[in-house]
Design brief:
Strand order of the largest sheet: 1-2-4-3-5-6-9-10
Largest sheet: 8 strands, mixed
Distance between the termini: 47 Å
Order of helices and strands: EEEHEHHEHEHHHEEHHEHEHH
Number of helices: 12
Shape: globular
Number of domains: 1
């Protein structure tokens, strides 16, 4: 990164990583569930010096504060407050948003709700949408719902290569950089991941939403990127997204699962082209009837599993 801004927010400190701080245009890039803003280093470099890239670390991740009250702070509603505070801090009335996984769902929330929709000029979702594969989401919740401890740094890096193979990272140097930005040493000398292990409690405490209703409500230009081997965002879901939002721009990235790293020209150039497109006013869409959201089904599963563990 080229600069770091620390934004105070109700007892917490939110770290915002910045590339090209003097560039004339700004885009916000928001990371996934257990990642941090440093993941957008390659994206910022490929996007070019005309774009200032702001990549916050969500509370509980990276350089940002951990919450003393996870049930209150590790929720999408709270992340929305964090996001709006970041936009206010940088005096951004309206901004393009690129979100990977959780960061994309946060962008959807901002773009869908009446009090914040005007802040999102256009929205890019990276391997996420209003309908997610339940099996893939379950595996995600299980992985981040348990502690991870490694005797050596090399063991941590090996696990990263296994779990994050979907990123499509190709070089040993890139994997080493990912590991360096993902590691935290514990008092006993062992290693773990950088994030607060309680971030997974979001799956228990967060309020279910109708994600399809959010998707249909969005009026800004939309783009979705899907890893061709994604276990989370099915190809059929992208088709349904396009039916609900006919102007949707889509990109499928070969050789990636969940989620493309957005660190090379072949992935970033289509985003740059989308960001440069003229903004056309769109008419409201007719409401559609769709089933219950993945979030509602997933939350029911997690709560059921929690009750079963308590009875063991």
């Amino acid at each position: 990164m080229d600069a770091l801004e620390l934004v105070p927010l109700r007892g917490l400190e939110v770290a915002v990583r910045i590339w090209h701080p003097d560039a004339p245009k700004t885009v916000v890039a928001w990371h996934g569930l257990a990642r941090h803003g440093g993941d957008f280093e390659g994206f910022a470099r490929a996007l070019g010096p005309e774009w200032r890239v702001l990549a916050p670390d969500t509370p509980g991740r990276g350089l940002s504060s951990w919450s003393p009250i996870p049930a209150q702070d590790y929720l999408y509603r709270r992340y929305k407050t964090v996001a709006l505070s970041v936009l206010d801090h940088f005096s951004l009335e309206q901004v393009p948003w690129v979100g990977t996984s959780m960061g994309g769902l946060l962008g959807m929330l901002l773009a869908a709700e009446a009090d914040s929709a005007h802040r999102i000029e256009r929205l890019v979702l990276n391997d996420v949408g209003p309908e997610l594969n339940t099996d893939g989401l379950t595996q995600l919740a299980l992985y981040f719902g348990r502690p991870h401890r490694f005797a050596t740094f090399s063991q941590l890096e090996t696990e990263l290569r296994s779990h994050y193979g979907g990123f499509g990272i190709e070089s040993d140097d890139a994997w080493r950089r990912l590991a360096l930005g993902s590691a935290r040493r514990l008092p006993d000398g062992s290693w773990t991941y950088h994030y607060d292990p309680r971030i997974g409690e979001q799956f228990i405490h967060d309020t279910p939403r109708n994600s399809w209703a959010d998707w249909r409500a969005i009026r800004c230009p939309l783009m979705v990127i899907r890893g061709a081997e994604s276990p989370l965002l099915d190809a059929d879901s992208v088709l349904s997204m396009a039916e609900a939002q006919p102007g949707l721009v889509t990109l499928e990235v070969p050789g990636c699962g969940h989620a493309p790293m957005l660190d090379r020209d072949s992935q970033v150039a289509p985003i740059a082209e989308f960001l440069a497109r003229p903004h056309r006013q769109r008419l409201p869409l007719q409401p559609q009837r769709l089933g219950s959201s993945w979030w509602q089904r997933m939350l029911s599963w997690v709560r059921r599993e929690s009750r079963l563990r308590e009875t063991d």
